[in-house]
């Protein structure tokens, strides 16, 4: 069966775009952190929506599972096939056309395989901003961003990917193409079907194209790196900045000292921007499409915060290079944890007002599960989204520490639940949290999700084992 299948797939995409050798497939079969490695019949690389549709039709006829994949930067194993070797991975990375930029309407229509960074660059060439921003933007794709409803560092001003999508083109499980590439801000014509596919992690359809919202490009930007004593003070600063700058507040990122220590120890070309150490840091950024100086606004926020004893020290970036250095400190936070041994991770959110209490309780709970563990809670404070990562105790056995993963997750997630939070703020469910999902959702919610899945993918061939 598989020889026939492979030759039928090769008829659609060409021999060289059906990868079957272990060496050429390996990069598609393991994810960034090495937590998931799968096997597959083949990696298929279509170049157009029509090719995706024909590939899916063949797989549906042969009852072969398909796993859509973009840049393979996902962090929950959703783009990696299981170990059965039955699936075909459909990589969208050859679909890189920018189909249209409509400056008047403020939209960009792109293929799903365009990287986020390329989408940003194309928008910038037309003096527009596509505001989604992630540390993985050089590799992740628009299709992957849609499938995971990606968040990132600018959600506080512009929203998640869901808020930035106006229309979608999707290949359904039976191979039909749904052309929903509308550019309308207002369209109340029944169910908003695109929302089903946003955040569905490839379990309901394959996104092949999208209409994205553009906003005016920012002409002025002001960035500050701020030292303070607690998450409580960080929240007070956030409130102050939001009240003063309104929608001009575009990032508010929280970092603990231990995170900065890790970056300074293991990152290259970095230094502490402040004179002495502080228990916590906030990276605060204001921006505006107007040609205006935001320096006075930022200085006003910081002066008020220093007077109210919310902030202990701060430095403003003098130029774009220095801004880049501040952001580098923030972006390196995930990566450098590798050098400190095992890290047990949580991507959680709580209502913003509960963020300080959650962080302090989370730290206490983690330390009660593994004494001397090193919590490194950081992230998108302006969205209540904390990457609650916990590094192993110094000198501990990495595998023995990681064996406590589920126990630690359960303890931290119990605190999240008490604050009415979410166990997956932006990375999704994938394979990593699939079993947890059924534990935290009400039965009625799980039932609705399963019914949607059964309606759109009756044979369960799209990304089996992911989400539901
Ligand atoms: C260093 C780093 C920083 C990160 N920072 C953030 C962050 O700040 N915020 C955040 O939200 N995420 C972040 N991520 C996670 C990741 O980059 C995002 O989830 C991203 O949106 C995934 O895009 P991708 O193209 O790599 O998708 P993949 O990893 O290839 O796939 C992810 C999921 O989407 C599905 N999928 C992919 N393409 C399609 C498609 N065309 N149609 C249907 N389903 C599809 C896959 O099956 C899989 O379930 C980060 C990752 C790294 C490595």
Question: What does the secondary structure layout of this molecule look like, with pairings?
Answer:
Layout: H1 2-13, E1 18-19, H2 22-29, E2 42-44, H3 49-62, E3 66-69, E4 88-91, E5 98-102, E6 107-111, H4 116-125, E7 128-129, H5 142-148, H6 155-158, E8 165-171, E9 177-180, H7 194-197, E10 206-213, E11 215-216, E12 220-228, H8 231-245, E13 249-256, H9 257-266, E14 280-288, H10 295-307, E15 313-316, H11 320-336, E16 343-344, E17 347-349, H12 355-369, E18 374-380, E19 385-391, H13 398-402, H14 405-418, H15 434-440, H16 443-456
Parallel strand pairs: 2-4, 3-4
Antiparallel strand pairs: 1-2, 5-6, 6-10, 7-11, 8-9, 8-10, 12-14, 12-15, 13-14, 13-18, 16-19, 17-19, 18-19
Helix pairs in contact: 1-3, 8-10, 8-12, 9-11, 12-14
Flavin-adenine dinucleotide binds next to strand 3, helix 5 and strand 10.
Name the features.
468 residues; alpha+beta; eight-stranded antiparallel beta sheet; five-stranded antiparallel beta sheet; 20% strand; binds flavin-adenine dinucleotide
Oligomer: single chain
Number of strands: 19
Q: Give the uncertain stretches in residue-range form.
A: none
Q: Could you say which structural class the secondary elements and strand pairing correspond to?
A: alpha+beta
Number of helices: 16
Mean pLDDT: 96
| Shape, principal axes of CA atoms | globular
Q: Describe the sheet with the most strands.
A: 8 strands, antiparallel
Through-space gap between termini: 28 Å
Query: What is the CA-atom radius of gyration, in angstroms?
Result: 23 Å
Q: Assess the beta-strand content as a share of residues.
A: 15-25%
Q: Helical content, roughly?
A: 25-40%
Molecules bound to protein: flavin-adenine dinucleotide
